[in-house]
Design goal:
This protein is about 35% helix and about 15% strand. It is an alpha/beta fold.
Length: about 500
């Protein structure tokens, strides 16, 4: 639709102009830093930063119902700069002009209802939000679109010249960072640090294909992250991990899209998210809080994080009932099929604590975190995929978390669940193969169930010639083979 075809009261709002007064805010000492700098931690105390709009109250001048109509109508605009995450431009990056927006097709990923059989098995209706259908096949694209749009803005303003973007990754971050940096090739180069041998071949192929410099580091993700943090501290590089507060702004749109998909009624929803570096669950909490403050939603949904027994520092933190007695302690992780969440010292933990407290102030209930086994994760992924869902191991982690939460009575009667499938299942197909082949190393603590295994079965009928590479059959030999093969296939399928 063209702008002139929209309701008169919405026309002035459809195409946003750069506005707002954004700053970095330290969560620890509350220091305020100018947004024009590439800042990742507080220079005074080393604390984690969030981006705050000091002019946010101007958005409250527009009533919540008008915001809802604006965002619903804006989806009909054929303008790339307002598609995907930037449909919510005023809530994501209000200072970035539309001409600086980088859009590669991210955002507005499908929300798919579980079929009746699977819903009954879990004891309530639920949905998967398939963020694996983003351009680089993971939720990381939301944050990269925001972060790279900001870099593009600084480049276009002449405040930066050449940019070297760096990140540590368990796979998905590197794929997204390399892809979005490649779109700005000529002005942005990317380098990614990966833990040696801890990234699937599918994930490794993505930054290589996008032309990034890929460096492998001995150890696990936490070790790579320490190296990247030192680079950002001592050298002129752009950090693209979730320590980059622009990443968090982009990932808030996951919450916006859920609210919009349910016509802005979220009071009966429980949103499940896997926790790795904790940037995503931080963003989702912040996103829902922002919607509440602007009147787009009337109450907050329930937020439940999920962690594996092999990487559970956030779960351990919330085991202590009294917030005053909680102490966060990093842990040494063990191998996990939820590889993207295999992080023992999440950099966004201060954000989690701050936003969980804000969540409790506004709704009376803080963040809940449940823990699941590796066995439950892999089998939940297989269960979802066998009921028509494109679910990665992190999506399996959320499904296992829903089962644990329901059995523990953490959900109210009538509440529905939304589960985050963070990436495309093909990124983690090696774990499925390991299950089918019963080849998991002992450290994973996974015992294979024969009823869940699957493998191809060769049909090679005896007594007839069979075709092969460079050996085609024709005429009567081909007819005999087709007849014999069809009979054997019918027998194996139980056809009469």
């Amino acid at each position: 639709m063209q702008v002139q075809e929209f309701p008169d009261n919405l026309k002035p709002l459809l195409l946003p102009r750069p506005r707002g007064h954004l700053v970095y805010r330290c969560l620890n000492c509350r220091t305020e830093l100018p947004i024009d700098d590439l800042a990742y931690t507080c220079p005074d105390c080393g604390g984690v930063l969030l981006i705050e709009d000091l002019a946010f109250d101007r958005l409250k001048e527009i009533p919540g119902p008008v915001w809802r109509r604006l965002f619903d109508h804006r989806r009909m605009l054929n303008l790339a700069a307002l598609r995907g995450i930037f449909l919510f431009h005023e809530l994501v990056a209000p200072i970035i002009p539309l001409e600086d927006v980088v859009y590669l097709g991210e955002g507005h990923t499908p929300l798919v209802a579980a079929n009746e059989t699977l819903s009954q098995r879990l004891g309530r209706p639920f949905f998967f939000k398939n963020d694996g259908q983003n351009p680089s096949a993971s939720f990381k694209d939301r944050g990269m679109a925001s972060a790279l749009s900001y870099l593009n803005h600084l480049l276009n303003q002449g405040r930066l010249d050449q940019v070297l973007a760096v990140c540590a990754s368990t796979g998905d971050t590197s794929a997204a960072a390399a892809l979005y940096s490649a779109y700005l090739s000529g002005r942005v180069k990317s380098a990614v640090l990966l833990p040696q041998g801890k990234v699937t071949p599918q994930q490794l192929s993505q930054p290589l294909g996008a032309g990034a410099m890929v460096l492998e580091i001995p150890g696990v993700f936490d070790d790579c992250m320490k190296v990247v943090e030192r680079l950002a501290r001592d050298w002129p590089v752009a950090l693209l991990n979730s320590k980059n507060a622009w990443r968090i702004l982009g990932q808030e749109t996951y919450a916006f899209e859920i609210a919009q998909a349910f016509d802005w009624r979220v009071e009966d929803l429980a949103v499940f998210l896997p926790i790795g570096n904790a940037g995503n669950i931080t963003a989702v909490m912040a996103g829902f809080i922002k919607l509440l403050e602007l009147g787009l939603i009337e109450v907050l949904p329930r937020i439940i994080g999920v962690q594996s027994e092999h990487a559970d520092p956030v779960f351990r933190y919330y085991l202590e009932a009294e917030s005053e007695s909680r102490v966060f302690r990093p842990i040494q992780v063990r191998p996990s099929v939820a590889q993207a969440a295999m992080i023992g010292n999440p950099v966004s933990m201060p954000r989690v604590i701050a936003l969980s407290e804000r969540l409790k102030e506004l709704s009376g209930r803080e963040l809940k975190v449940v823990r699941v086994s590796e066995q439950e994760i892999i089998e939940s992924m297989l269960l979802a995929n066998r009921h028509g869902h494109v679910v990665c191991t992190q999506g399996g982690e959320c499904l296992a978390g829903l089962d644990v939460a329901v059995k523990a009575g953490l959900l109210e009667p009538g509440e529905r669940a939304v589960l985050d499938s963070t990436a495309h299942m093909l990124k983690f197909v090696d774990f499925q193969t390991m299950y089918f082949n019963d080849s998991f190393p002992p450290d994973f603590e996974i015992k294979v169930k024969p009823e869940l295994q699957n493998a191809p079965d060769l049909v090679r009928p005896a007594g007839v010639d069979c075709p092969g590479p460079g050996r085609p059959l024709n005429g009567e030999p081909l007819e005999r083979f087709v007849d014999a093969a069809a009979r054997e296939v019918a027998a194996r399928l139980g056809l009469e």
